[in-house]
Amino acid sequence: MSSGNNKVAAPPAAPPAPPPAAGPAPTFSEIMNKSAASAIRGGTAGALAMGANVAALMWMRTTINYQYRNGGSFVGALKHLYGDGGIPRFYRGVLPALVQGPLSRFGDTAANTGVLTFLDNIESTKNLPVAAKTVAASAAAAGWRIFLMPVDTVKTTMQVTGKFSAVTDKIKATGPRALYNGALAAASATFVGHYPWFFTYNYLSATIPKQDDQLKELGRRAILGFSASAISDTCSNSIRVVKVYKQSYPTQLTYTQVVSKVIAESGVQGLMFRGLETKILANGMQGILFSILWKHFEEALFPKEIK
């Protein structure tokens, strides 16, 4: 008889469970629908945030455009504008601003949100760096700004001159193309300004963790907005000077003539930095307000879609 030291063999271990099967890759139609939904969410929230911005900061935007066209200091521009019509002078062009501002920001934010969602869901592009994805969004936003040029021209000319007749007189003299004066500069400024704004915003948003405390999260969003605006303004300022000058000049000028006139008036420094300090201040305030309100409206309007 065998001894009691004989051991019973253990049953063989069960093979490891196979990994769950990956779901089918999303179809192109599904990706497009998801991108469009993201664009509408981001764009609607952006438009509402920009509408609030226009109402709060229109006086500063008028001052900036006046400086772009005429030069001078922030205080000097304020004094001249106030002397030209008091407080209402700062709100000349407010109606087109309330149309152009939200629509332009709708395009910016819809492009950023929609294009990023689209690229994130394509296998060959989802691992692209944020910088590359933001270039595509910036190009889309630039095209949208050209579409909005007539409204922008009316708004800017009224801010600079204080008169709607300045717009109609130029149209009578040069035809409807006057409404598109500065379109190339507008698209270029949008691309040059949009890219660093959203690249900075997207980069810092991914780098600085979200805060559970509501007040700290508002502070985080304010830092994101101000940083993005300051970098964007510095990159695009000279192009915006050229755009506003060409838009609001009473006769047709080529871009070369505009640059020559600005340099003759205030030198290369004027071309590069005219109105920049005011713009950084105004856009910093706008960037903080927009950054906070954009995400607030997006989360408030579309809570189920925001993860």
TrEMBL record:
InterPro entries the record matches: MCP_dom_sf, MCP_transmembrane
Chain spans, region Disordered: 1-28
One cellular-component annotation, GO: membrane
The keyword Membrane appears for this protein: yes
Topological type in the membrane: Multi-pass membrane protein
Solcar repeats: 128-207
Protein's cellular compartments: Membrane
Keywords: Membrane, Transmembrane, Transport
Residues spanning the membrane: none
Biased composition (Pro residues): 12-23
Superkingdom of the organism of origin: Eukaryota
Protein family according to the UniProt entry: Belongs to the mitochondrial carrier (TC 2.A.29) family.
Protein name: Mitochondrial carrier
Organism: Fragilariopsis cylindrus CCMP1102
Lineage, top ranks: Eukaryota, Sar, Stramenopiles, Ochrophyta, Bacillariophyta
